Amino acid sequence: MDKIATLVVFLQVLYDLYENLYGSLWQRL
Questions:
Q1: What's the whole-model pTM score?
Q2: 13-21: which pairs have CB atoms within 8 A and are 24 or more residues apart?
Q3: How much of the chain is helix, strand and coil, in % rounded to 5?
Q4: For residue 5, what are the CA distances in angstroms to 8, 10, 12, 17?
Q5: What local confidence, expressed as pLDDT, does residue 2 receive?
Q6: What total of structural domains would you count in the chain?
Q7: This protein's superkingdom (predicted)?
Q8: Is the pLDDT of residue 1 over 90?
Q9: What's the longest Cα–Cα distance across the chain?
Q10: The domain containing residue 16 runs over which residues?
Q11: What angle do CA 15, 28, 18 make, to 5 degrees?
C-alpha cells in the first residue's frame, strides 16, 4: 500500500471522528 494513500485515509478517519465529536458537543450547547 502506498504511504501517501495510507496517510490520506488516516486523515479522513481522524477528521470524521473530530467532526462527529464536535457535532455532538455543538448540539449540547
A1: 0.62
A2: none
A3: 90, 0, 10
A4: 5, 9, 11, 19
A5: 93
A6: 1
A7: Eukaryota
A8: no
A9: 42
A10: 1-29
A11: 5
